[in-house]
Every structure is written in structure tokens, then in C-alpha cells.
Design brief:
With 312 residues, this protein is α/β, with parallel strands linked by helices. The chain has two domains: 117 residues, no CATH class; 183 residues, von Willebrand factor, type A domain (Rossmann fold), CATH 3.40.50. β6 and β7 form a beta hairpin. α2 packs antiparallel against α3, α4 packs parallel to α5 and α5 runs parallel beside α7.
Length: 312
């Protein structure tokens, strides 16, 4: 069972039919979580809402949201604007083509790690011909910075292997029993996969079955900008982000990286957590499409595109 679903189950057990888990000011420390009730499948969503100028909208209430599963509106059982802790994997392409960009990429990644909250966890993974977990999950900013500075360019690109390993790692991120976390991957790459043992289709399927939002950054080298038509690397990074509720960035210059990491950090700090119990009782393992709408003019909601129903 996913981690946000656990929170939703706690909420459903203690207050069936209520709409928001946000506590009144001053009541956070006094509130005691009700008992956990198993046996309910809760669909959990991390939802980003932006206005026409792509500014984050953070003052919505549960009644402002409409969640549809396969076209059928669902009743929201869990809702909070409170920022939940996050476990994330920071993936850095260290293939030979990244040699000139490594210094700027390192500083941008370090800047992002310094914005982590006190309950957040991050791991550092670099990938070229092989995938190395340079630092396991920790909240120690000094350890994260040290790991990022150990990255160096050389070799080919095993992007799919790195994503596959990080998706698996996130399921094993340290977690106290009472904790609830969101999950995210931030991946920086400047080229197409050339040496992975797993396919893009395998990675995409695993990502769709996870609770992980993928934020992808595809550096546009001069060669890539000069090529017209279909570019596989761009398609891969865009598709992974769209399916999981993340976002894809394609900067022309490496100097844009610090601002992109800041945008991702701001987004993760501005999301809503929404959960519902599906009105579809079938446990058939089929894919179910999700659409979230907000009832505010000019506002747009973004979340994962769907999920696989449970089996059995």
C-alpha cells in the first residue's frame, strides 16, 4: 500500500465522510491520529495547480477540486495543503558528453539539496556506463553535497537503468511507521540512452505502477538543437514526466539549471495531497484514467494520468 494511502486510511478511519485533513492553527501538536483501518484501497494524488501565468495556486479548498476516474466523478476522502515530507532520488548524467557542464550541474544540484525540509530524504545517483548510488537516503546536506561533488564525467549513458534502480530504491526508503511521504525523481541528462539493460517500456511501466513523480531535465546540446523531427531522448523525458504528474524541462543553456531546480523545489512545496476511495469495486488490475479539474477560472491541475487497479 502506498504511503499517502496510509494517511488517507487513517483519515477515513477517524472521520468517514469528512473533506479536509488540514488542522486548525495551533491544533497540529494536540491532534492524535485515529486508529488505522485496513482493507480500503485509497487512490492518492499529488496535485499541482497553476494559473494562466504558471504561478502556483495554493489557497484552494476540497470543494474546489473535481476528481474523475474513467469519466466518473469520485468523492474526495483525504485532502491537505500541508506540505508532506518527500523522499526523492537525484539522478545526474555523468556520461562523457557532460564533461563541460558538470561544474554547473553540480552546483545546481547542491542548491536544490539545500532547500530540502527537515523531514525530507534524498539519495544521489550518477549514471554513465554504470549506475552508482553515491549517497543513500539521508537528510544530511553535507553528505549530499559531498556525494554530488564526487560525480565526474566519462562513459556512455544508461538512463533507463538509473531510473529503474531509483524507482526500486524509493520503495525501500527509510520510513517510520507513522510517517507519510511523497516520492519524486529528478533526473538530469543530455542525451539518449545508449547502454541500458532495461528498455524504456519497462521503466515507463514501473513508473506508472509507482507513486513517484518524475521531473526530467533534458539539456539541449548544440547537436540536439540542430536536429529536426523526432528526438527519442526528448520524447522519453517528456513521457515519463507526463504520465507520473511531474514536469519536463529542456533548457538550451546549462546556466538555466539553478532556476530549473528552484522551480522544481517550489512546485514540490506547493502541492495538494488528495485521496479518494474508487467508486469502481472491481479488483481487476486494469489501468484507470484520472483527470483532476479545479473550479477556478484560469487554473489548471496536474497530477499522474492514472493508476492500475488492485488485483484479487
Amino acid at each position: 500500500m502506498n504511503r499517502l494511502a496510509t494517511a488517507a486510511l487513517i483519515a477515513v478511519a477517524g472521520a468517514a465522510g469528512w473533506g479536509s485533513a488540514t488542522l486548525p492553527a495551533g491544533a497540529q501538536q494536540q491532534a492524535q491520529p485515529p486508529e488505522f483501518r485496513a482493507g480500503v484501497d485509497v487512490v492518492s494524488l499529488s496535485v499541482t495547480v497553476t494559473d494562466l501565468e504558471t504561478r502556483f495556486v495554493t489557497d484552494l479548498e476540497p470543494d474546489d477540486f473535481a476528481v474523475y476516474e474513467d469519466g466518473i466523478r469520485q468523492e474526495i476522502n483525504f485532502f491537505t495543503r500541508t506540505q508532506l515530507p518527500i523522499a526523492l532520488a537525484l539522478l545526474i548524467d555523468t556520461s562523457a558528453s557532460m564533461d563541460e557542464e558538470m561544474g554547473t550541474a553540480q552546483e545546481a544540484a547542491i542548491g536544490f539539496s539545500q532547500r530540502l525540509g527537515p523531514d525530507d530524504l534524498a539519495e544521489i545517483i550518477d549514471f554513465d556506463s554504470r549506475v552508482d548510488v553515491l549517497q543513500g537516503f539521508t537528510n544530511d546536506v553535507d553528505e549530499l553535497e559531498s556525494a554530488i561533488r564526487r560525480t565526474s564525467a566519462g562513459g556512455s549513458t544508461s538512463l533507463y537503468n538509473a531510473l529503474y534502480i531509483s524507482l526500486k530504491d524509493l520503495t525501500r526508503a527509510p520510513l517510520r511507521e507513522a510517517d507519510v511521504r511523497r516520492e519524486a525523481i529528478i533526473v538530469l541528462s543530455d542525451g539518449e540512452d545508449t547502454s541500458s539493460l532495461v528498455s524504456f517500456e519497462e521503466v515507463l511501466e514501473l513508473a506508472k505502477r509507482s507513486e513517484t513523480a518524475i521531473y526530467s531535465i533534458g539539456l539541449q546540446s548544440e547537436d540536439r538543437r540542430a536536429r529536426t523531427g523526432f528526438r527519442e531522448a526528448d520524447f522519453v523525458l517528456r513521457q515519463l514526466a507526463q504520465e507520473t504528474g511531474g514536469r519536463a524541462f529542456f533548457p538550451d543553456e546549462v546556466s538555466e539549471l539553478p532556476d530549473i531546480y528552484r522551480q522544481i523545489s517550489d512546485e514540490l512545496s506547493s502541492q495538494y495531497s488528495v485521496g479518494y476511495i474508487s467508486a469502481n469495486p472491481l479488483r481487476n488490475g486494469q489501468w484507470r484514467r484520472i483527470v483532476v479539474q479545479v473550479e477556478r477560472e484560469g487554473a489548471t491541475a496536474r497530477t499522474k494520468r492514472g493508476y492500475y487497479a488492485p488485483r484479487g
